[in-house]
């Protein structure tokens, strides 16, 4: 799986879904827009329903509700991972990333533009709060 860079400050959810679906940010953004999901909407990083709906538009499914992060070893092979969790204006918010365990090992795809590398293995620095397991094909 390859990282996709977010093009707006609040576009991390769209970029995460694009990475999982294997499409460009622009394509994911167009599909999101057709579903009423826009990157400028701050609910995109404070509500998991938007990314779940976008995943379904690409034929994928996620868990219905967030599961608490317990350890890196306990994560499924593909998951939307909430890091940088905080309260902002009294509402929870976070940064969407993608956890992957595949033939290349375990890593996190982070769409933030300013990073030196978008394939992260610095697990001790990331502080996940919760995750949504993702199935990459319909079942």
Automatic annotation (TrEMBL):
<protein>
    <recommendedName>
        <fullName>Peptidase C39 domain-containing protein</fullName>
    </recommendedName>
</protein>
């Amino acid at each position: 799986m390859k990282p996709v860079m977010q093009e707006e400050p609040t576009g991390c959810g769209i970029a995460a879904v694009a990475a999982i679906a294997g499409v460009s940010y622009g394509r994911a953004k167009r599909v999101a827009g057709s579903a009423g999901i826009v990157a400028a909407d701050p609910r995109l990083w404070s509500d998991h329903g938007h990314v779940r709906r976008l995943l379904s538009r690409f034929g994928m499914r996620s868990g219905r509700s967030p599961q608490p992060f317990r350890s890196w070893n306990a994560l499924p092979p593909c998951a939307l991972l909430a890091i940088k969790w905080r309260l902002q204006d009294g509402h929870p918010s976070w940064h969407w990333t993608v956890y992957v365990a595949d033939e290349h090992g375990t890593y996190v795809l982070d769409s933030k533009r300013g990073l030196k590398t978008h394939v992260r293995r610095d697990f001790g620095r990331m502080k996940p709060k919760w995750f949504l397991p993702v199935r990459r094909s319909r079942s």
